[in-house]
Amino acid sequence: MLWKLVRHFAAPYGPQIVAVVVLQTATTLATLYLPSLNADIIDNGVAVGDIDHIWRVGGTMLIVALVQLVTAVTAVWFGAKVAMSVGRDMRRAVYLHVDSFSSEEVGKFGAPTLITRSTNDVQQVQMTVLMTLNFMVMVPIMSVGGIVMAVREDPGLSWLVWTSVPILLAILLILVSLLMPLFQRMQDAIDAINGIMREQIMGIRVVRAYRRELHETARFADANRVLTDISVHIGRLFVLMGPIVTLILHLATAAVLWFGGQRVDSGLVEVGALTAFMQYLLQILVAVMMGSFMFMIFPRAIVCAARIGEVLDTTTSVREPVSPREPEERRGSVEFRDVTFSYPGAEAPVLAGISFTAEPGKTTAIIGSTGSGKSTLVSLIPRLYDATEGTILIDGVPVTELGRDHLSEAIGFVPQRPYLFSGSIADNLRFGAPKATDDDMWAALDTAQARGFVSERVTGSGDNAAHGLSSAVSQGGTNVSGGQRQRLCIARALVARPRIYLFDDSFSALDVTTDMKLRAALSADTEGATVIIVAQRVTTITDADQILVLEEGRILARGTHEHLLASSPTYQEIVASQISREEIA
User: Fold this and answer.
1) Beta bridge pairs of residue 341
2) What is the pLDDT of residues 21-50, one digit of tens each?
3) Taking a C-beta distance cutoff of 8 angstroms, is the pair 78, 20 a contact?
4) Who's near 361: CB < 8 A, 6+ residues apart?
């Protein structure tokens, strides 16, 4: 998977990679050539007063060293540029692919692991690409070239090469085999820490309200301890590499001096050749060490690449139509035809046999007990999920045959959990209508009963103070109250002026007075559009043209408020329970 992933994302940078290979080859050849020059000077010496020879040999060494420096620096520059570009493209690909996921795929992976895979995992693969370009070209050339040059200098000592290199390789390969499973556990531990941290940040109010700080701290400490233990275990294995390599290098050097000294004393080899042989042996062992270090970071990169590939290979269950259709008439009508929906792995469907029509200029309300499938039903219209069976049509065309651009233009959706993005209020209101003017936004805020607090809102201080539409909103809208966040989300949908409005329990955080004012203004503002409201409070939907009563995923009754009061026992129970609570209050 690592090779497949890197090959795919590195393909556009072929010329730069070729440049790295050429430059690294030149650097390595220059490195191999220098000991040979040293040996020539040591063995042949310099005649007294032969300044030309000194300038000739010394100049050659300086030129070779300069070439080595320039090619090495240039190769590292190209290698870093390619690696960073591959990492950038990989992050972009993961983000865009995750952005195409439906709620089903996002729920399957979970937000913490998706964040880890698009950041930490990509970073590991990116670093491996960088190290590969910087070292893996040099390693085979230096290893093979060093062996050739060492044997050329003194064939009688070549057995030292055939002994020390396999020993070093065997020990380091054992370390690699031990590291592979540890890196998989390490990435899983990082996922766990991200998940706990995200839960604690998102649920900080609940944690404090129930005084569970110590419990959550203990949860985080346990996950942190697991990651620490794994990291320490990996560190211990890494630490072994230094002493092992140093020991083998020193033993090899001692062996060269011991056995080489005997050969020099016997006249079988010159001192310069022995010195060059020792330098070549050290170069070979260093190259093997660098290669082994690469093999030690490969296991983690392989694990990370497999996790990234798992995301990229996952196809979304909500697919864009190959040949999108356009409705003959854009009115905004919504029709459900015997729709059934089941979550993956669920024993029973959440919705079964749902059929109804929501007409333009009319309001359709959906009410029912908790878990009856109200939110799931409205989520099927903008294709957050796709129906398991049946058909959903907008203006007579199945939603599965409409392009995403058309769906986005036709639908204004206010989710059950209102969410605002970091930026200004204006940035959030323009989310569905980038070209909306200030007048458009203030008109939507008027309808959403949000003009008052927005006009008075000030964030920052001094010269950095921002007022009204320019005031800052934190990520998730955590610096505004729940009711204000809900009204801003309603205004965001109104600014886009869609043909279909979906309000998924979008008035639950509003007081009764604000709710009444908003619904009165909303009725005039959405005239001619199709409005579908999921509600918990009966008072929110008494004026609806059609009310659907859901129970266990099925429509038990439908009609106006007055009709259901007279004919539906379930609706009567809901009304009676809410009136009772209000009277008691």
Assistant:
1) 351
2) 888 888 877 777 767 666 555 545 544 455
3) yes
4) 527, 528, 529, 530
Rounded mean pLDDT, 478-490: 88
Span 431-441, average pLDDT: 89
Lowest mean pLDDT among 130-144, 175-189, 263-277, 398-412: 263-277
Residue 323: strand, helix, or coil: coil
pLDDT in tens, 498-526: 999 999 888 877 887 888 888 888 888 88
- At residue 228, the pLDDT reads 92
Does residue 531 carry a pLDDT above 90?
yes
Q: How far apart are CA 298 and CA 135, in angstroms?
A: 13
Whether the per-residue pLDDT at 527 is higher than 50: the answer is: yes
Distance CA 41, CA 171 (A): 37
The Cα 15–Cα 24 span in angstroms is 14
- Relative orientation angle of helices 14-44 and 138-153, to the nearest 10 degrees: 20
Measured between alpha carbons, how far is 288 from 48 in angstroms, rounded to an integer? 41
Tell me what pLDDT residue 25 has: 83
pLDDT band at 585 (very low <50, low <70, confident <90, very high): very low
Length of the chain: 585
160: which residues sit within 8 A by CB, 6+ positions away? 252, 255, 256, 259, 281
Question: Cβ neighbours of residue 415 under 8 Å, at least 6 residues apart?
Answer: 489, 504, 506
**Predicted confidence band at 273 (pLDDT cuts at 50, 70, 90)?**
confident
- The pLDDT, as a whole number, for residue 323 is 84
Strands (E), 130-176: none
What is the C-alpha R_g of the chain?
A: 35
Q: How many CB atoms lie within 10 A of CB 381?
A: 21
The string of DSSP letters for 202-257 reads HTHHHHHHTT-HHHHHHHHHHHHHHHHHHHHHHHHHHHHHHHHHHHHHHHHHHHHH
Which of 319, 371, 332, 322 minimizes the C-alpha distance to 348? 371
Domains of the chain plus CATH, in order, are 2-312 (1.20.1560.10), 334-584 (3.40.50.300)
CA distance 139 to 32: 12
CA distance 524 to 529: 10
Q: Which of 67-71, 155-159, 553-557 has the highest mean pLDDT?
A: 553-557
Q: Return the structure tokens found at 583.
A: 């009277």
Q: What is the chain's percent helix, strand, coil content, to nearest 5? A: 65, 10, 25
CA-CA distance, 391 to 108, in Å (whole number)? Answer: 25
DSSP string, 364-404: EEEEESTTSSHHHHHHTTTTSS--SEEEEEETTEEGGGS-H
* Residues 384, 502: Cα–Cα separation, whole Å: 13
pLDDT at 191 over 90: no
Q: How far does CA 364 lie from the centroid of its chain?
A: 38
Strands (E), 415-497: 423-424, 458-459, 466-467, 472-473
**DSSP 8-state symbol, 317:** S
